């Protein structure tokens, strides 16, 4: 396609030249140049050709004069790129002192100054020379202020000063001088410092930029929303935030868990129960089964009835069995609570299970059994050997074997628990 364009241009030029020659042939015109006693007389065509020739000669001469300077500039740029590459390699290898030397030389080239200074500051910080890193960041100027602020905040966080980093990032955000990297750091720092609403306000521009992968973005949104839900100051704020989430987000286990716990804590138990039940109908979650028993004492009979119904669908769920035990204990059904927690411990001897067993034993006055159960909670958390906890008299041993029930594959074929076909 490019060849045809050149052919077309040449044809147009040839036609234009032929027309011009035909026009000038009748009257070529006359040009006179008088300089003191010298008179130069020629036609217009020759004068134009002479001007073109002079222009070409001057241009060629200028290029010849500039050639050494351009060659020196190209060589200098090449050396600068080589130093930048050498500094990057040294930084990756952990030779931060060499990286600083190479990057300081590369920063002398204006085209390489910004990336070289940024990496130079990181090398100084990694070497422990924070004063040098701060000095280098100060040399960035206005062009590197946005990215420099994010790097300065990162250094503050690394040095155990997250509060100062957060204040710096807030100021840059208020002045509309916050880069996307700085905005991500603002969200993460605010979450770490227990300011989820600050993180929530800073999140939308980062989401719109799509600078993160879909998975990383979804995880960051989930963490931020869950923290904001858990920290909602009142029911109005909680419900407003919950209704702002998308339909898919309202099905995420972490968000349902956070909403239900905060809603129950603010006295809205029925809303908490509704959201957990809806999520469990959509997809079973052991985490939500555990949350069902940790919402407090309100509506305990109704919650126990629903948990017993779930037991028919997930008989070998240790978190669900602990929920049953917790609700049965609240309703003073001690023997049933003992049986449920023993079955849960047989399935998974977790610290939470041992702690709940301690509460059951304390409720019946078995101080020795409660002490051993509480000790086992610590031992289980540390992966240490467990102590024996005697059964409650006069009951016999509880049947803690997992209940076998029919499972089907995604094709509807029956299979044994564990995924093998009969």
Strand order of the largest sheet: 1-2
Euclidean distance between termini CA atoms: 67 Å
Total number of helices: 19
> CATH architecture of the domain at 315-405, please?
Alpha Horseshoe
**How would you classify the helix and strand content by structural class?**
mainly alpha
Overall shape: it is: elongated
Look at the structure and give the mean pLDDT.
86
Proportion of beta-strand residues: under 5%
Can you walk through the features of this model?
By secondary structure, the chain is mainly alpha-helical. Among the domains are: 141-229, Serine Threonine Protein Phosphatase 5, Tetratricopeptide repeat (Alpha Horseshoe); 315-405, Serine Threonine Protein Phosphatase 5, Tetratricopeptide repeat. It contains 19 helices and 4 strands. It has helices at residues 2-26, 44-93, 96-106, 113-127, 130-138, 145-158, 162-174, 180-192, 196-209, 214-230, 235-244, 253-265, 269-282, 286-292, 300-311, 318-330, 334-347, 351-363, 367-381; strands at 31-35, 38-42, 407-408, 414-415. The strands form 2 sheets. Strands 1-2 form a two-stranded antiparallel sheet. A hairpin with a 5-residue loop joins strand 3 (407-408) and strand 4 (414-415). Helix 5 packs antiparallel against helix 6 (145-158), helix 15 (300-311) packs antiparallel against helix 16 and helix 16 runs parallel beside helix 18. The mean pLDDT is 86.
Key terms:
two-stranded antiparallel ribbon, Serine Threonine Protein Phosphatase 5, Tetratricopeptide repeat, single chain, mainly alpha, 422 residues, elongated
């Amino acid at each position: 396609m490019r060849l045809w364009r050149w052919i077309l241009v040449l044809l147009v030029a040839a036609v234009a030249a032929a027309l011009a020659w035909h026009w000038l042939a009748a009257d070529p015109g006359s040009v006179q140049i008088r300089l003191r006693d010298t008179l130069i007389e020629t036609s217009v065509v020759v004068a134009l050709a002479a001007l073109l020739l002079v222009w070409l000669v001057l241009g060629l001469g200028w290029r010849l004069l500039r050639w050494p300077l351009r060659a020196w500039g190209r060589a200098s740029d090449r050396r600068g790129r080589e130093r930048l590459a050498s500094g990057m390699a040294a930084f990756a290898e952990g030779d931060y002192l060499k990286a600083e030397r190479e990057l300081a030389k590369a920063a002398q080239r204006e085209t390489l100054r910004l990336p070289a200074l940024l990496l130079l500051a990181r090398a100084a910080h990694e070497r422990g020379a924070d004063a040098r890193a701060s000095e280098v960041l100060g040399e960035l100027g206005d062009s590197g202020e946005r990215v420099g602020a994010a790097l300065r905040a990162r250094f503050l966080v690394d040095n155990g000063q997250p509060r100062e980093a957060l204040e710096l990032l807030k100021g840059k955000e208020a002045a509309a001088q916050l880069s996307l990297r700085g905005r991500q750091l603002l969200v993460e720092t605010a979450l770490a410092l227990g300011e989820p609403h600050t993180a929530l306000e800073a999140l939308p521009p980062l989401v719109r930029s799509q600078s993160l992968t879909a998975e990383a973005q979804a995880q960051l949104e989930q963490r931020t929303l869950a923290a904001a839900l858990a920290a909602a100051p009142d029911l109005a704020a909680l419900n407003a935030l919950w209704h702002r989430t998308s339909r898919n987000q309202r099905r995420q286990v972490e968000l349902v868990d956070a909403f239900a716990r905060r809603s129950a804590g603010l006295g809205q138990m029925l809303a908490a129960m509704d959201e957990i039940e809806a999520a469990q109908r959509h997809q079973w979650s052991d985490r939500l089964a555990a949350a069902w028993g940790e919402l407090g004492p309100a509506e305990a009979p109704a919650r126990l009835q629903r948990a017993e119904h779930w037991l028919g669908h997930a008989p070998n769920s240790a978190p669900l069995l602990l929920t049953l035990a917790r609700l049965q204990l609240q309703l003073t059904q001690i023997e049933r609570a003992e049986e449920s927690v023993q079955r849960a411990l047989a399935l998974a001897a977790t610290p939470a299970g041992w702690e709940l067993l301690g509460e059951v034993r304390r409720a019946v006055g078995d101080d020795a059994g409660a002490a051993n159960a509480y000790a086992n909670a610590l031992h289980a958390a540390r992966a240490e050997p467990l102590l024996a906890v005697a059964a409650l008299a006069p009951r016999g041993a509880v049947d803690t074997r997992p209940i076998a029930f029919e499972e089907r594959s995604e094709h509807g074929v029956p299979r044994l628990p564990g995924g093998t076909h009969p």
